[in-house]
Amino acid sequence: MTVAAGFVCKDGIVLCADSQESAGGYKFPVEKVLTRIDPHTEIAIAGSGYGPLVDMASQRMAKNLMGGYEDYLIIEDRIADTLVELYENSFRLYPVENQEAAIVELLIAVKLRKHSYPFLYHSTATAVTYVPEYAIIGSGRAVQYEVQNLYGKYMSVQRGILLAVQLLNVAKSVLNTVGGRGKIVTLHDADLGIGQADIWQISESEKAFQQFTAFVTPLLLGYVDLTVTDQEFVESVKGFAEHLFRTRSEYRATSDQWKAVMQALMNPIPIEKLEKKQRADQEREDQLKQRPL
User: Fold this and answer.
1) How open is the CA angle 233-234-238, to the nearest 5 degrees?
2) What burial class does residue 132 get, using C-beta atoms within 10 Å of its C-beta: 0-12 exposed, 13-18 middle, 19+ buried?
3) Contacts (Cβ under 8 Å, ≥6 apart) of 170
4) Mean pLDDT of 58-73
5) Among 94, 119, 96, 99, which residue's Cα sits nearest to residue 108?
6) Cα(177)–Cα(161) distance, integer angstroms
7) DSSP secondary structure letters along 78-147
8) What mean pLDDT is reported for the chain?
9) Quick one: how far is CA 41 from the chain centroid?
């Protein structure tokens, strides 16, 4: 099952999802974040639910939202209309075990280039809501406490990226249905394209979170345990500080990798270059489809 989350930050939106699909005893990587751009619109969509229906909903949604709409009220109506059409027709005819199996959840981040800021929406079945802070879908709700403790309404996109790393890190460690490289996407208030990075590119940040968490838990227990003397606790705090300084120095040694990832997400490729790459990708895909089997 998918874990996906969207965070509204003071300077943009961060969207993330894992990349593991399970079928019986098999696990395999899939793309769970769809991105689309044109001269007027940027879109990133993550979904949770039955795979083929999520893919259909994401692709149909992206198609129906492109084209240069004037404001976000129209975008919200287009999202609702698309969902109603899907549930009344395609989803209703699709062979699933029961009606509940046909319900999908979507996180839809949209930026209209006529405006200087993106919006985030959450849909469950045909219900659509505007997200003012953050939303989590799929099995990610099992680790929602991590977001509640770390999210701040006025946090920067850079902090939102690190929060996305930690959410996926925790989800992978406690949920056997979550795994794979994952993906993080950013939409900015600035006149730039979509920033994208795979989770393997920020493995050092993930490792740093793991090291901190592993060391802070014993310190927490020692703080509450009054059988531990004050002197013993002071020594454990000193050890904790030394550990943090040493491991953060090791983490800083990988700063080139960290900077490269932040560059990809915080200073993405200008829209015009992304459009060119997107057209090239589409041409390659069309050529592959035309090849004889």
Assistant:
1) 115
2) exposed
3) 143, 146
4) 92
5) 119
6) 22
7) HHHHHHHHHHHTHHHHS--SSGGGG--EEEEEEEETTSSSEEEEEEETTEEEE-SSEEEEEGGGGGHHHH
8) 83
9) 19
Topology classification of domain 3-194: Glutamine Phosphoribosylpyrophosphate, subunit 1, domain 1 (3.60.20)
Kindly provide the b/e burial profile for residues 134-166, where b requires at least 16 CB atoms within 10 angstroms of the residue's own CB. bbbbbbbebbeebbeeebeeebebbbbbbbbbb
What does the alpha-carbon distance between residue 9 and residue 189 come to, in Å, rounded to a whole number? 10
pLDDT band of 254, cuts 50, 70, 90: confident
Cβ atoms of 193 and 36 within 8 Å: the answer is: no
Burial class (CB in 10 A: 0-12, 13-18, 19+), 287: exposed
Residue 66 near residue 28 (C-beta atoms within 8 A): no
d(CA 253, CA 247): 10
Highest mean pLDDT among 10-14, 24-28, 257-261 belongs to 10-14
Where are the strands (E) in the chain, listed by range? Answer: 3-9, 12-17, 20-23, 26-29, 33-37, 41-48, 105-112, 118-124, 127-130, 134-138, 183-188, 195-198
Angle at CA of residue 131, ends 269 and 104, nearest 5° = 90
- Amino acid at position 238, single letter: K
Residue 21 identity: E
**Residues 17 and 45: beta-carbon distance below 8 Å:** no
Whether 57 shows a pLDDT value over 90: the answer reads yes
Specify the pTM: 0.82
| Structural domain spans, the chain | 3-194, 204-255
Give the distance, in angstroms, between the CA of residue 152 and the centroid of all CA atoms in the same chain: 17
Q: How confident is the model at residue 167 (pLDDT cuts 50, 70, 90)?
A: confident
Q: Distance of CA 99 to CAs 3, 90, 93, 181, Å?
A: 22, 13, 11, 31
Distance of CA 245 to the CA centre of its chain: 30
